[in-house]
Amino acid sequence: MEQILIAKNLRKSFGDVEAVSNVDLTVFKGDIYGFLGPNGSGKSTTIRMILNLITPDEGEVFLFGQSNANHRKEVLRRIGSLIERPDFYNYLSAYQNLELLARYSGLKLSRKEIVEKLEIVDLHERADSKVKTFSQGMKQRLGIAQTLLHDPDLIILDEPVNGLDPQGIKDIRNLILHLNQTFGKTLIVSSHILREMELIANRMVVISKGKVIVEGEVLTLLESERQKLILITDNITSATTLLSQKFPHIIFERNKLDELIADLSAHEIPLINKELVNAGIGVKQLLVRNSLEDYFLHVT
Ligand code: ADP
Ligand code: MG
Predict the structure, then answer these.
(1) pLDDT digits over 120-131, tens only?
(2) Distance in angstroms (rounded) separating the CA atoms of residues 139 and 120
């Protein structure tokens, strides 16, 4: 599979602060690559090094098979990025803003071509509305339309859902999937909200304090995760006895709330439910903590 981005051993300090150390990343063509980490973990610094906005103290970035230090222009032409809140002229329309930005970048786009970009982000019906009438989510989508002006192969979005309301977050999520599935774009999307990434990313990296903690396929990372089961039944004594017999390798613990707690892997959960039902024990509640969010909390 074609590697779009390879970052090798990236390191960057600001004075005494080591913002990024030993970061290795690989992004393949067609990925929605989740770049996850709490605030201050080094996501934006890494993205700035990828985009050649700051120079790493150590390490290298290869984009489309070329070093971004030696082929800056060629490489950046194939990337669209949104790394800060987009800044638009409030008294100009969505269309006029994009037209200006296209011109600044030396692109000659027709009205039709610009409206096509607005259509991708579902703002074409508001093409001639002033940006000051836009919600935060609409401004963010306009920012994404801006990244599309030169039809890049790779799109990098730094915390694109930050500060948006639930509908705005949903719109951006769907837009990211649309760009990937309909237009074949490769995306790198950073976030500190893991649940958000879990819904869209196929591969991801988790960083903490500038270091990579885990990288790989989201499904694999989820599967390899030990899950926590919290079970409430109408007969905890029988349930404990039964399950301890049927699943001798799992440790079932009864807590003060009379819940049965166990660490196990995902495939065992339906088996446990089945045994309880077969034995006529009523399952009142069966909770599983299995999200990347929990995984993330666990590893950081
Ligand atoms: P994130 O994007 O994950 O929130 P950042 O990459 O912005 O993290 O920051 C990582 C660390 O580097 C933080 O401790 C931050 O304060 C520090 N940092 C980032 N940029 C600068 C800078 N220009 N000058 C000094 N410190 C910085
Ligand atoms: Mg940041």
Answers:
(1) 999 999 999 999
(2) 14
Taking the centre of ligand 2 as the mean of its atom positions, its distance from the CA of residue 220, in whole angstroms, is 26
Tell me the domains of the chain and their CATH numbers.
Answer: 3-222 (3.40.50.300), 225-299 (3.30.70.980)
Q: Which ligand is nearest to the CA of 84?
A: 2
Measure CA 14 to chain center. Answer: 26
State the Cα–Cα distance between residues 73 and 39, nearest whole angstrom: 30
Read off the pLDDT of residues 213-259 as tens digits, 9 standing for 90 and up.
Answer: 889 898 877 766 567 888 999 999 999 999 999 998 888 989 888 89
For residue 46, give the ligand 1 atom closest to its CA: 6
Does residue 63 contact residue 52 with C-beta atoms inside 8 Å?
Answer: no
Q: How many angstroms separate the CA atoms of 190 and 38, rounded? A: 10
Residue 201's identity, in one-letter code, is A
The pLDDT score that the predictor gives to residue 213 is 84
CA of 156 to the centre of ligand 2 (A): 13
Query: Among 68-77, 134-143, 170-179, which stretch is predicted with the lowest mean pLDDT?
Result: 68-77
Q: Which two tokens stand for residue 15?
A: 């004075």
* Residue length of the chain: 300
Burial of 236 per CB tally in 10 Å (0-12, 13-18, 19+): middle
Of residues 271 and 221, more confidently modeled: 271
Q: What is the DSSP letter of 109?
A: -
Q: How far is it, in rounded angstroms, from Cα 149 to Cα 114?
A: 7
